[in-house]
Amino acid sequence: MIVPARPSPARRNRRVALLTCALLLAGLQTGRTASEASAAPAVYYVDPATGSASNPGTADRPWRTLQEVFASGRTFAAGDTVYLRGGNHGSPVVTGGAPGVRTIKAAPGATPRVKTLRFASGATRWTVDGVVVSPQEADGTYTTGDLVRFDAGATQNILRNSQVRAASDAAADTWYNNDWVNRSGTAVVVVGSDNQVLDNQIRNVRNGVMAERTSQAGAGATGVVIRGNSINHFWEDAFRCKVSGCLVEYNSAVNSYAVVPPGTENDPPHRDMFQSYRGDGSFTPVSNVVLRGNVFISRTGTRYAKIPFQYNGKYTIQGIGAFDGPYNNWTIENNAVQVEVGLAMGLYGMNNSRIVNNTVVPRSPATDSEIRLTNQKDGTPSNGNIVRNNLARTFNTGAGTNTQHSNNITVGTAYSTYFANYPAGDLHLRSESPAIGAGTNRDAPTTDADRKPRSTTFDVGAYEF
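^ that's the sequence the OP posted. Answer follows.
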């Protein structure tokens, strides 16, 4: 047997030195020591009540606020977790990138609050989980700006399981018209690409979740995922997508208020549950957008005491609006829309898209509601769309060219014939509904708005019985 020669002491020492240098370099890149760089992902703690900026961030010697942590220039490695204990963590600006995900989350049983939250350009692969973003609840102040913002250049970040609101419900219930104007901002603005906004509760805001563009070429929040969010008590748009590649699914929005900024009494702000437009004069197509399984109801339950749902009997929120095409290759399926104006689904310049298995009827006291497919602003007709399995008060799709229609049902005013509890806003089908089994599986989604599998023969509308 041949025994391999053992390396000389000098060679062994050289290997140790090289390894130490490599670990030291890794530590410099992540802000850790050499020994820490070779360890498992780290866990840190932040506590506004007992922490200090000079502490090491351990469970018994935590840092003080998340704002201070990032302002200090500290960096983190893939897999690291930063636990936030209860209290006010300021207005943190998340920075830095790593090959893997780093997580900022509420410590078990804690309710950490921030005034605002921003993902700066260059921030990537951060997940923020379970925080309360609320200026009034953080430090008693208000802002009309963005509560959460993903800057251009911030990519692959996630906000999830969080609460985003301008103020608590108790505070918002005392607001009059001008209080809403001067105290509520936009909940979430996404400008960077490939970010996600998941399963958040958004309340008492001007706008909900906005996916914005940064150029006439359409750059901006491409690849954004907006899923599972609830928006309640708001006064302008619930959701907005102005770029290609948006996925907006399984969200809800209810209770839109008729807030009228001073000076706009004769022409208050245009409001929509979902809106797409450019506003920059370009005709760059907005393509490959998915609107799926969203439930939009203009009002439910008891409103806040000092603000109306309507202004002079009108100026209420519209439904799904795509207003200045061309729009190409959209999927609009399994959405349930109940608003108080006729334009419940208005598609202007929609091309080669699927409008399938939606339920669109008016919200009482309104009596009109339609799915409209019409020309874009320069007069070019919508073309090549598929309109199937929709359940609507009325259809207005004659302006489209080369449209495939089938298995759509005009409800008229026979709401009690079709729906489980129309007055309460429950648009599930009743057991005797003519929509049951009246659909086709051609071009149709295989699940419904509740993510329940559809069974042959498919039902018409957003919900399978």
